[in-house]
Design brief:
By secondary structure, the protein is mainly β. The protein has one domain (11-113): Jelly Rolls. Helix content is 3%, strand content 49%. The strands form three sheets. Strands 1-2-3-10-5-8 form a six-stranded antiparallel beta sheet. The chain has a four-stranded antiparallel beta sheet with strand order 4-11-12-13, with no helix packed on it. Strands 7-6-9 form a three-stranded antiparallel beta sheet, with no helix packed on it. It is globular and about 50 Å long. The model has no long low-confidence stretch (mean pLDDT 93).
C-alpha cells in the first residue's frame, strides 16, 4: 500500500539545498502496465532534461507548489495546483518539468508503459533506451530524419 500524500521516497538526488525526490506509486500499488511517479522538486531542480517519448503517452497532474512546464527555448509556463497536461508520443509531446519558484513543488506523472521505449533528449542529443531491465543512455546521437 502507498499513499500519494505521505509517500516513502524511492530516490533522492541532487544537492542538499536542491533535492529531487521520487516514488513509483503505480509499482508500489502493484501495477505492471502503467506508470505513476510522484516527484517532489525543491527550488532549482528538474525532473528530467527536455525530452519526448516515441511510444508512451504521459499525463501530468500539478499537485502542489508551482512547477514550470518547459516545451523548448522560450516556451514555458507555470503550472498551478490542479492543472493537468498531456504529452503525446513524438516531437509534439516534448517537455521538461522544473521548479523555478522559491517553494517546493509536487507533480504526479502517469503514463503508459509500452516497452521497449525510446526517449530523445533534444538539447543534449542523448537517446534513452528503456527496457524492463533499466535505461541505457546513448550520448551525442545526431537526429536523422526518417526518409
Amino acid at each position: 500500500m502507498v499513499n500519494l500524500f505521505t509517500p516513502t521516497w524511492d530516490a533522492e538526488v541532487g544537492e542538499p539545498q536542491a533535492k529531487l525526490r521520487a516514488v513509483r506509486l503505480a509499482r508500489h500499488a502493484g501495477a505492471s502496465r502503467l506508470v505513476a511517479n510522484l516527484y517532489e522538486l525543491e527550488p532549482g531542480t528538474i525532473v528530467s532534461p527536455l525530452h519526448f517519448h516515441h511510444a508512451n503517452e504521459e499525463l501530468l497532474f500539478a499537485i502542489s507548489g508551482t512547477a514550470t512546464l518547459r516545451r523548448g527555448a522560450g516556451d514555458e509556463r507555470q503550472l498551478e495546483p490542479g492543472e493537468i497536461v498531456a504529452f503525446a508520443p513524438g516531437r509534439g509531446g516534448v517537455h521538461q518539468i522544473l521548479n523555478r519558484s522559491a517553494e517546493t513543488a509536487r507533480v504526479l506523472i502517469c503514463a503508459t508503459n509500452d516497452l521497449p521505449e525510446v526517449a530523445e533528449q533534444t538539447e543534449n542529443h542523448t537517446v534513452a533506451v528503456i527496457t524492463r531491465n533499466g535505461v541505457r543512455l546513448l550520448e551525442d546521437q545526431p537526429h536523422i530524419p526518417a526518409t
